[in-house]
């Protein structure tokens, strides 16, 4: 089976949980090729194995080099391994029937792929959405199992109460849509950086500036105003990265984009460095 057909087949199995992004009516997946709604709005799967729902292309500040760096840091260096394991354990705990895991802002797809690997249960189907076509294309190239969608977070192609799990990993949220698509027993899993996140990078590049500290209070407050936060866990650890991985790290984060050449080299010429990961995993119900 070709990538296009595999991707369409995966969508076929969950088509009752999808909806048309244009008219919001129900859809079918036909001929292992297209998503079609009852008003005949039609979206074809690309041969690379994703579907693009945007009416016109959107330019983002993310490019292939950034997504490649991110993929290497997440999958090869496994910088976020303990976070993926924790989220997988949370999902396994609640996974009693067929369910969707919707990754809102999936980028190049590695977080979703790693979590699905850890959960390792066929009851769970992953669907990743991002507005960046470059990111979604890379996700489809590297990972076959999840359904990959280029789309708008403010208009995900998901029916009301269709997702038991929504993942929002270092990415902006859309709480009104999250509440609409979440099942009654569903949970939102939001990953927010803690004050120590990548502090080595920030200390070297932004010593004594505002950007030398992460502030997550606003993100958490906004979440608490919109959904019912039921638990919050902080996970902090360090991971040793070699010089090559340090280059990827600095390339993948907005913090690194503003670094000048001298700073970039000073940071990445080290043989290796201990890098701090500090994350809050916040769990919420819709109400
Ligand atoms: Zn339609």
Explained architecture:
36% of the residues lie in helices and 27% in strands. The longest helix has 14 residues. It is globular and about 60 Å long. It has 287 residues and is α/β, with parallel strands linked by helices. The chain has a single domain, classed as 3-Layer(aba) Sandwich (Rossmann fold), CATH 3.40.50. Strands 4-7-6-5-8-9-11-10 form an 8-stranded mixed β-sheet, with helices on both faces. A 3-stranded antiparallel β-sheet has the order 1-2-3, covered by helices on one side. The protein is built from 11 helices and 11 strands. The protein binds zinc ion.
Question: Short summary of the structure?
Answer:
This protein has 287 residues and is α/β, with parallel strands linked by helices. 36% of the residues lie in helices and 27% in strands.
Q: Element order, helices and strands?
A: HEEEEHHEHEHEEHEHHEHHHE
* Count of all domains: 1
Do you know the CATH architecture? 3-Layer(aba) Sandwich
Distance between the termini: 42 Å
List the bound ligands: zinc ion
CATH C-level class is Alpha Beta
The CATH topology, please?
A: Rossmann fold
Shape: globular
Please tell me the overall pLDDT. 92
């Amino acid at each position: 089976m070709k990538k296009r057909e595999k991707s369409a087949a995966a969508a076929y199995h969950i088509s009752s949980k999808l909806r048309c992004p244009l008219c919001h009516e129900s859809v079918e997946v036909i001929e292992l090729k297209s998503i079609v709604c009852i008003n005949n709005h039609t979206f074809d799967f690309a041969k690379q194995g994703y579907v693009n729902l945007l009416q016109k292309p959107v330019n983002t500040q993310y490019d292939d080099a950034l997504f490649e760096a991110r993929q290497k840091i997440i999958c090869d260096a496994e910088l976020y391994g303990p976070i993926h394991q924790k989220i997988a354990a949370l999902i396994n705990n609640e996974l009693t029937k067929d369910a969707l895991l919707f990754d809102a802002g999936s980028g190049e797809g590695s977080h979703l792929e790693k979590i699905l690997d850890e959960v390792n249960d066929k009851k769970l189907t992953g669907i990743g959405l991002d507005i960046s076509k470059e990111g979604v294309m890379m996700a489809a190239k590297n990972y076959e199992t999840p359904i990959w969608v280029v789309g708008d977070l403010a208009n995900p192609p998901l029916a009301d109460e269709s997702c038991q799990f929504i993942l929002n990993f270092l990415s902006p949220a859309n709480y009104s849509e999250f509440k609409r698509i979440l099942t009654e027993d569903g949970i939102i899993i939001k990953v927010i950086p803690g004050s120590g996140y990548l502090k080595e990078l920030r200390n070297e590049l932004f010593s004594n500036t505002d950007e030398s500290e992460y502030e997550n209070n606003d993100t958490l407050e906004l979440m608490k105003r919109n959904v019912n936060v039921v638990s919050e866990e902080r996970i902090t650890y360090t991971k040793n990265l070699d010089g090559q991985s340090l280059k990827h790290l600095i390339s993948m984060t907005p913090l690194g984009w503003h670094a000048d050449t001298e700073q970039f080299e000073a940071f990445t010429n080290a043989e290796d460095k201990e890098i701090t990961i500090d994350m809050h995993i916040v769990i919420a119900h819709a109400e």
